[in-house]
Amino acid sequence: MELRVTDLACARGGLPLIEGLSFTVAGGEALVLRGPNGSGKTTLLRTLAGLQPALSGEISCPPEQMTYAAHADGLKATLSVAENLSFWAAIHGQRDIAPALDAMNLADLAERPAQSLSAGQKRRLGLARLLVTGRWLWVLDEPTVSLDADSVALFAAVVRGHLAQGGAALMATHIDLGLAEARVLELAPYKAGLPADLGFDEAFL
Amino acid sequence: MIALLIRDLRLAFRAGGGFGLGLGFFLILAVLVPLGVGPDPVTLGIIAPGILWVGALLACLLSLDRLFALDHEDGSLDLLATSPIPLEGVVAVKALAHWGTTGLPLALAAPVLGILLNLPGAAYATLMLSLILGTPALSMIGAFGAALTVGLKRGGLLLSLLVLPMYMPTLVFGAQAVTRAAQGLDPTTPLVLLAGITAGSTALLPFAAAFALRINLR
Amino acid sequence: MASLWEYANPVKFMRLSNWLMPVSAVLAAALIAVGLYWGFFLTPDDYRQGATIKIIFLHVPAALMAINAWAMMLVTSLIWLIRRHHVSALAAKAAGPIGATMTLIALITGAIWGQPMWGTWWAWDPRLTSFLILFLFYVGYIALWSAIEDPDTAADLTAVLCLVGSVFAVLSRYAALFWNQGLHQGASLSVAPGTRMDWSYKGPLYLCMIGFVLLFVALVLAGTRTEIRARRSRALMTRERARA
After folding, report:
1. Interface of B with A (CB under 8 A)
2. Which pLDDT value is given to residue A197?
3. What is the mean pLDDT of residues B11-38?
4. Distance of alpha carbon C7 from the chain centroid
5. Environment class of residue B170 by beta-carbon count within 10 Å: exposed (0-12), middle (13-18) or buried (19+)?
6. What does the alpha-carbon distance between residue A126 and residue A70 come to, in Å, rounded to a whole number?
7. Which residues of chain A, if any, have pLDDT below 50?
8. Shortest CA distance from A38: residue in chain C
9. Which CATH number fits the domain A2-204, given the four candidates 3.40.50.2300, 3.40.50.300, 2.60.40.1260, 1.20.120.1560?
10. What share of chain B in percent tops pLDDT 70?
11. Would you say the ipTM is above 0.95?
12. Which residue of B has its CA nearest to C177?
C-alpha cells in the first residue's frame, strides 16, 4: 500500500495554489503538511480525497482507499454518540464500534446525544469515525482543533496504532502531535507561480 | 444504504426533525381554503382535487431545502461523498426518506382532508393512489433542486423557483386523475402517466442530482 | 477551412463577433422594418379578424425565438458540459434573459390579440399555459446563474438545470394538452399542401421571422461579449490578487 503523488497541481476558486508537488506515503508512515494559512493545505487534502479535481498531475491511490476528516465532524446533534458512530460504521460496512469508542475514551458517553457534548468531545467522536471506516490512509485536516493536551496524546496513540497495523496518515496540522516518526513536508516551495496556464480564466487574458 | 435510510428517518422523527410540519401545513391549507372560498359544498367538491394536490405539492416543498443543506453544513455530505456508497445512491435514499416522511403521510392523511373539502365519495381511493404514485416524483425532483442549491446561503426561495415549474406535469396528472374519478370517469390514463413520471424521475434524476452535488462540493 | 471549435477561444470569438454582431444587428433592423411596414401598411386586413391579425408579425416571430432560444441554450449547455468551452457557457448565459424577453413579448402580444378575438386577455389554453411555464423555466435558469458566485460552478449547474428543465418543459407541454384542449388556433404556417395563408401575409411574416432570428443572434453576441469582458476583468483581478 502506497500513495504516490506526482507533479500535482491544484486550485481553489480558479486560482492555482500548488504546483509541481510530488511525494509518497507508504504503509506505516505519517506525513505532516506544513505551510502558512492560504498555502493550499485544505485544497490539497480535498483534492487527494477526490472531492475536487486536480488541475494536473497524478495520484496513485484511489479515493476509495482513503478516509477524509476535516473541520466539520459530520455529527448529527439529535443522535447519540453510539448512533452517530454506528451509522458511519454501517456506511463503511463495519459493525463493531466498541474498540473505536474505547480508543477515543468515549465509552462512558456512548448514550449521550451529540448535542450535549463539548467541542473537544465532539472532535473525539469525529476522529473515532476514522477507526470504523477500515481504510488504510487517513487524510486529516487540522485533526487536533479544540482537543486538550490529554486528548491530543490519546489521538497520537490512535494514529500510532493505525500506523503499526500498516496504515498511513497524511495530515495538515500546526500542533506537534508528538509523533517522532512523522515526516514533515513544507508546502511553501510548491506555491504556484503566476501567471500560470493552469487556471481556466487565463484563457480570457 | 439502509443505514442512511434509517438515519434520515430517525433524524426526521427526533425533536426538531420537522416530521409533521408538512402534515400540519396540509391540514391548515384544507381549513383555510373553505374559509376563503366559502362553505358551499358543491364548489368545494369541485375544487377539492386541485386543492389537495396543490397542498401536497407545497407541503413537500417545505422540507426540501433541508434535504442536503444540513448534511452540507455539518460536513456529512463530504464524508458521504468519500464513502463507499455512490453519491447517486445517497441521493436516491435521501429522496426516499424524504418521501417516507412527507409524501407517504400526506397520501395517508389526504382522505380525511377530502372529507373537510367535501370530495365526492368515488374519488377517495384514486386520491390516495394518485398521491402514492405521484409524491415520489415530487421528492425526487425536489432532491435534484436541493442538490442544485445546496451551496447557497439563501437557497430556499430559489429552490422553490426551480422546482415548482418542474412539478407542473405531476400536478396536472395527479389532480386530473382525482377530478376524473370525482366525475365518475376512468382515471387510469392520468394515473399511468403519473406512474411514468415517477419511474422516469427515479431512474434518471439521481444521476443529475449527484452530478450537481459533486460540483457543489468541489 | 477553419473549424467551428476555433471560436471557442474567447479571443477569436471576440474578433469574429466584432463584425458579425453589427452586421446581424443592421440586417435584423432592416428586415424587421421592411416586414412590419409591409405587414402593417401594404397588406389588406383579414376578412374575419380585421387589422388585429397583424400582430402576428410580432407575435409569431417572438414565439418562435422564445422556443429556439431555449433550444440554443440546450445545445450550448451540452457543448459546455462535454467540451468545456467557456464561450459556449457564456453564450447560454447571455441567451437566458433574451429568451425570457421573447417569451414575454409572445405572451403580451398574444394577450393583446386575444382580447378582441376571444374577448379575454388571458385564457388557460395549453399553448398560453406552456408559454407561461416556459417563462418560469427561464426565470429559474436566470436566477440560478445570478445566485452562484463561482462562474464555472454556475455554468455547470445551470447547464444541468437546462438539460433536466428541457425534459420537464416538454412534459409540461403534453401535460397542458392533456389538461385542456384550448382556444388557440393551430399553427398559422404549414408546409403541408393547401396552405391557409396568402403571400401578402406570409411575405412580411417570413421577413419578420428572419429578422427576429438575426436580432436574436445580434443580442446573444452582444451579451456573450459582455460576459467575456466581465470574465476577462475578473481574471485580471485574480491575477493582481495572486501577485499581491
Report:
1. 2-4, 7, 10-11, 14-17, 71, 73-76, 78-85, 217-218
2. 44
3. 85
4. 21
5. buried
6. 9
7. 195-200
8. C242
9. 3.40.50.300
10. 99
11. no
12. B172
Q: How far apart are CA C215 and CA C38, in angstroms?
A: 19
Model pLDDT, residue C244? 67
- The rounded distance, in Å, linking the Cα atoms of C218 and C207 is 16
Q: What is the residue-averaged pLDDT of chain B?
A: 91
Domain residue limits, chain A: 2-204
E strand map for chain A: 2-12, 15-26, 30-34, 56-59, 66-69, 137-141, 168-172, 183-186
State the residue range of the domain holding B80: 2-9+19-217
Dump pLDDT digits (tens) for A105-121: 888 888 899 889 898 89
Chain C residues near any Cβ of chain B (below 8 Å): 133, 136-137, 139-140, 143-144, 147-148, 153, 156-157, 160-161, 163-165, 168-169, 171-172, 174-176, 178-179
- Residue C184's CB: how many other CB atoms inside 10 A? 15
What would the mean pLDDT of B160-172 be, rounded to a whole number? 93
Low-confidence ranges of chain C (pLDDT < 70): 1-6, 47, 181-197, 242, 244
Please give the pLDDT value at position C196: 62
- Has residue B75 been placed in a domain? yes
* A contacts of B12 (beta carbons < 8 Å): none
Partner residue opposite C239 with nearest CB, options A194, A200, A203? A194
Measured in whole angstroms, the distance separating CA A89 from the mean position of its chain's CA atoms is 17
Helix, coil or strand: residue A34: strand
Q: How far is C31 from chain A, CA to nearest CA, in Å?
A: 34
Measured from the Cβ of residue B21, the count of other Cβ atoms closer than 10 Å reads 15
Q: How far away is chain C from the Cα of A2, in angstroms, using its nearest Cα?
A: 33
Instruction: Tell if the CB–CB gap between A203 and C232 is shorter than 8 Å.
Output: no
Collect all residues with Cβ–Cβ distance below 8 Å to C77 and sequence separation of at least 6: C88, C89, C92, C158, C159, C162, C163
Query: Rounded mean pLDDT of chain A?
Result: 84
Q: Is residue B14 part of a domain?
A: no
Give the C-alpha separation, C44 to C57, whole Å.
14
Share of chain B above pLDDT 90, in %: 61
d(CA A147, CA C39): 79
Q: Which of C72, C47, C66, C75 is nearest to C109 (CA)?
A: C66
